[in-house]
């Protein structure tokens, strides 16, 4: 189930949003409100996986807000992640996140188009 905040049209003004208490996948910002950046709040319950996917032509950062889990990523392997950590994933990186604990794992996925290399 996907939830999205009602977004204003594209703006040049800063936007302030409260983080919802949603327990799944919640889009906070995305085009056309932004020029290309997408911010999603994800909550994984005990044993739940985000699912393998690729960053494709985008850069992605994961900001862990609460809990701990496991990141599996190409060129990185398996790494434990926990709150107050930031993970950077370059374009075309296959990855997955799994909650390995009993408490919820909450993190933000922040993506944006990568410049041509």
Give a brief outline of the structure.
It is built from no helices and 10 strands. It has 117 residues and is mostly beta strands.
Can you give a write-up of this model?
By secondary structure, the chain is mostly beta strands. It has a single domain (26-101, 108-113), classed as Jelly Rolls, CATH 2.60.120. It is built from no helices and 10 strands. The strands form 2 sheets. A 6-stranded mixed sheet has the order 1-2-3-10-5-8, with no helix packed on it. Strand 2 and strand 3 (38-44) form a beta hairpin. The protein starts with a strand and ends with a strand. The model has no long low-confidence stretch (mean pLDDT 90).
What gross morphology would you assign? Answer: globular
Biggest sheet: strands, sense, closure? 6 strands, mixed
Helical/strand content category: mainly beta
CATH architectural grouping? Sandwich
Q: Gyration radius, to the nearest Å?
A: 14 Å
